[in-house]
Amino acid sequence: MNIKLHRIYDDHMPQGYHALVDRLWPRGISKDEADLDGHWKGLAPSDDLREWFNHDPDKWAEFRKKYMSELSENKDKAKKCLEDVSQKNLVLLYGAKDKDHSHAHVLKEYLEKLG
Question: What is the pTM of this model?
Answer without folding.
Answer: 0.94
